[in-house]
Amino acid sequence: MNSSFMHPRNPYRTPPDFKELALKFPEFRKHAKQKLTGKIEIDFKDAAAVRALSTVLLKRDFNLEVELPPDRLVPTLPLRLNYLLWVEDLLQEVNPATEKIVHGIDIGTGACCIYPILAARMKGWHFTATETDETNYKCSLETLERNCLQNHVTVIKVTAETMLNGNIDTSHKYDFTMCNPPFFDSDSFGPKSRSDKRPLPMCPKLGGSASSTEIAVKGGEVKFIENLIKECQELKSCVRIFTTMLGHKSSLAPIIAFLKEAGASSWSETEFCQGRTTRWGLAWTFFDNFKVPKLPLIRPKNNGKGPPPLNYIISAERWSNKGDLTVACILMKIIELFNSLKMEIRKIKDKKDKKAIEFIARENTWSNQRRKQREGKRNADKVCEQPEPKKAKVDEHLLDTQKDLTFCLKGLLLLEETDTDSIKLQMQWIEGGSGRESINQILQYMKNHLFEK
Ligand code: SAH
Q1: Distance between CA 453 and CA 431 in Å, rounded?
Q2: Which of 27, 137, 139, 322 measures 20 to 30 Å from 108, CA to CA?
Q3: Cα Dmax for the chain
Q4: What's the whole-model pTM score?
Q5: Is 281 among the annotated ligand-binding positions?
Q6: Which atom of ligand 1 is nearest to the CA of 75?
Q7: Which CATH code fits 76-188+201-285?
Q8: Region labeled Disordered — which residues (predicted)?
Q9: What's the confidence (pLDDT) of residue 98?
Q10: Domain 304-365+406-452: CATH class, spelled out
């Protein structure tokens, strides 16, 4: 999985450790296979394995108890979160300081109303969700009850003919709609009859267990969303932003043309990339007092690899007198150093020969310290000191505070035993700060304090 494509706040930017999951959850262990290299993997084409993965991740990472029916679409979490986080970014841009509870609509909520339960747990959002399929409707109700989320989410059973009209309370104001439509055209996809020998419609990348009505509809996603846009006309003043996911890039152009005709005042599109699956997102509004923001694509600039990581070899010579040349010992010292720099740390990989942490800096402590050191040195060198003009000092202080308020850098640090007398240190920029340059500065700081002193 190429995690660098994912939304910066997506917890699965760092893929879950399957070994850890297999040890912790017997229901996942059943599907885990050990490769000759010792690596634990699952077969992503096996629906039961993908279902088990989503179930245990929901439990472990979101405290959500979910029972997914065997013959329905399995929601894969990295993609669902990428979409949800994009919606959150859009809302943030449009109305950053809102204090009121966010209320969204999810069209076609599926077997466990995945978007509403994630958003309710993560952000306390409220949802009205619709569903046509009886099994999915019932399972969604059960999911809400099991997780005590009935106060946050209402599921409505609807018919295919009317998605929103008549089902949604139009006296209420909604912040957004979401939709993961049936992507395929039922006329050109899957078996035509029970006697047809072709296999049931499968979404290979989605764990291949979806029922035909979940993933295929007459006219495909273009028709489905066009119908939705027609229905939006009735709701255009009570929903701020409409959004949908799309399974095919080619659907964007006809839908945008339809939106223009329907009188949408602005729209924007994005791409969700996770592993080998790419999906598209489209958002639109009929409001005139704001534009749907065009957010920068979260996409690496160089051939899908993201900014290249910085590598540094910790040799025995560079580590002499500081302790054992082991991944554990070096990481301990690095964590001490990062703590002294007021960074937040989250362990991501914790093997004997390979350890990784994610670090977050709320302020630029490393170059402040360097500045202080430099100032200290300069002052010591000076025989006679000229007092600095007062005004300049005040301005500098203000500037620093302003910078600190917006500064947030996120990075990854990986330590790996490569051979017996050296350890590889790798640092990867994730988000914020001055990009890779900030990571470079932190590496220099570490060299000065831990390795090359
Ligand atoms: N949101 C879920 C499910 C997406 S699959 C997820 O992301 O995993 C699409 C869902 O839309 C299916 O559950 C299907 O039953 C439902 N559906 C199809 N037509 C619909 C309609 N007209 N109104 C509401 N739901 C519909």
Answers
A1: 29
A2: 27
A3: 96
A4: 0.68
A5: no
A6: 8
A7: 3.40.50.150
A8: 368-388
A9: 64
A10: alpha beta
User: Are 183 and 221 within 8 A, CB to CB?
Assistant: yes
Tell me the HSE value of 22 on the side-chain side, using a 13 A CA sphere: 14
Residue-wise burial string across 254-278, b where 16 or more C-beta atoms lie within 10 A, e elsewhere: ebeeebeeeebebbbbbbbbbbeee
Determine contact, residues 159/227, Cβ cutoff 8 Å.
no
Assign 267 to helix, strand or coil: strand
Q: Residue 360 pairs with which residues in a beta bridge?
A: 344, 410
What are the tokens at 133? 């399929």
Task: Enter the tokens of residue 441.
Answer: 């500065």
How confident is the model over 36-59, as pLDDT tens digits? Answer: 888 899 999 899 999 999 999 999
Question: CA-to-CA distance for 4 and 275, rounded, in angstroms?
Answer: 9
* Ligand 1 lined by 110 (C-beta under 6 Å): yes
Q: Which two tokens stand for residue 329?
A: 């010992």
Ligand-binding annotation for 220, yes or no, is no
**CB distance 244 to ligand 1 below 6 Å:** no
- Check pocket membership of 119 for ligand 1, CB cut-off 6 A: no
From 176, 177, 128, select the one nearest 149 (Cα to Cα): 128
Q: Note whether 334 and 359 are within 8 A (CB).
A: no
Ligand 1 centroid from CA 391, angstroms: 62
Domain extents in the chain: 76-188+201-285, 304-365+406-452
Least confident stretch, 61-65, 139-143, 162-166, 198-202? 198-202
pLDDT digits 0-9 by tens, 106-145: 999 999 999 999 999 999 999 999 999 999 999 999 999 9
Residue 180, annotated ligand binder? yes
Rg (CA), the chain: 26
**Is the minimum distance from the CB of 269 to ligand 1 under 6 angstroms?**
no
Beta-sheet pairing, 174-179 with 239-246: parallel
Residue 110 annotated as part of some ligand binding site: no
